[in-house]
């Protein structure tokens, strides 16, 4: 009998706690609604003041449409005769950007990195292992991108032991070569081609 009474007392306590929590929730909702009304009224009278540069940047970025072209020919046909072109190599990717009115067109292409191991067999070298990062790119990348731009090649040789060497082929961008290429491809003066990126 005593245990039943204790059990009932526990339920009464739980009911009391639940009732108090519900009342507390109602009061919080009421306070929140009043606070929201005040904030709305204040916002209508006093618009949030942001620095002019931030406000301008938001308007520009909201109104622009970003288009990423998969094929160089599509990018070329859309961007021929553009007023300003930017280009760069970043994270082993070559990118070109053009802004035309409310559209920003971008073409990018991954640059393969070739690494292989050579074994000296006295009169000749044996290619023992060849590593490629991307199956879509040719096994021996010749330094010319799909768009036709030629990159400069840098070779790094590391001796693994007396007979074995690891060769890594990295590719870099010659700014003058890139400007010449883009000028011809897109019919734009070299003076209007900038190594860098469009930032908004």
Description:
This protein is of the alpha+beta class and 200 residues long. It has helices at residues 2-45, 52-63, 72-79, 175-186, and strands spanning 65-69, 85-90, 93-100, 103-110, 114-121, 124-131, 152-159, 164-172, 193-195. The strands form 2 sheets. The chain has a 5-stranded mixed beta sheet with strand order 1-4-3-2-9. The protein has a 4-stranded antiparallel beta sheet with strand order 6-5-8-7, with no helix packed on it. It starts with a helix and ends in a 5-residue tail after the last strand.
What's the layout of helices and strands?
Layout: H1 2-45, H2 52-63, E1 65-69, H3 72-79, E2 85-90, E3 93-100, E4 103-110, E5 114-121, E6 124-131, E7 152-159, E8 164-172, H4 175-186, E9 193-195
What's this model, at a glance?
The longest helix is centred in the N-terminal third of the chain and has 44 residues, at 2-45. A five-stranded mixed sheet has the order 1-4-3-2-9. A four-stranded antiparallel sheet has the order 6-5-8-7, with no helix packed on it. Helix content is 38%, strand content 32%.
Output the keywords.
Signal recognition particle alu RNA binding heterodimer, srp9/1; 5-stranded mixed β-sheet; 200 residues; flat; 4 helices; alpha+beta; 9 strands
